[in-house]
Amino acid sequence: MPRRDAHKSAESKRGSKLEPRFLIIGRIRKPHGVRGELKVAVQTDDPDRFRILDRVFISRDSLDPAPRKMQVTGIRFQQHDALLKFAGIDDRDEAKLLNSQWV
Questions:
Q1: What pLDDT digit, counting tens, does each position of 19-41 carry?
Q2: Nearest CA among 4, 70, 56 for reference residue 26
């Protein structure tokens, strides 16, 4: 049997759809304040997941092959949103560039 058939067989077992590699817990809505904090719409049934984070991945698409790793330096809550602070994001303009990304 040619190798090509073996490859097709393995591929059909996995399925043809790509599956997300990460658990989505929120979506960045907008900057909060002038020091780089981000307002994140919580997308999980357990918001306390945010409290234990020290790093997250962000991307515009859940199937992004190269999501950006971010170090979480602060977390607090405001009503139904999480306010996240990432290392290296120190002002409103930098924070605004992350709008609409998935966490």
A1: 667 889 999 999 999 999 999 99
A2: 56
Provide the residue count of the chain: 103
Q: Read off the pLDDT of each residue in 43-56 and give the average, rounded to a whole number.
A: 91
The residue among 65, 46, 68, 41 whose CA lies nearest residue 57 is 68
> Is the Cβ–Cβ distance between 90 and 36 less than 8 Å?
yes
Q: How far are the Cα atoms of 15, 25, 27, 57, 103 from residue 51, in angstroms, in the given order?
A: 35, 12, 16, 15, 14
What's the rounded Cα separation, in Å, for the pair 55 and 3? 41
Query: For residue 20, what pLDDT is reported?
Result: 61
Compute the chain's Rg from CA coordinates. Answer: 18
- Residue ranges and CATH numbers for the domains of the chain are 20-96 (2.40.30.60)
Whether residue 33 contacts residue 90, with contact meaning beta carbons closer than 8 Å, is answered with: no
Count of CB atoms situated within 10 Å of the CB of 30: 15
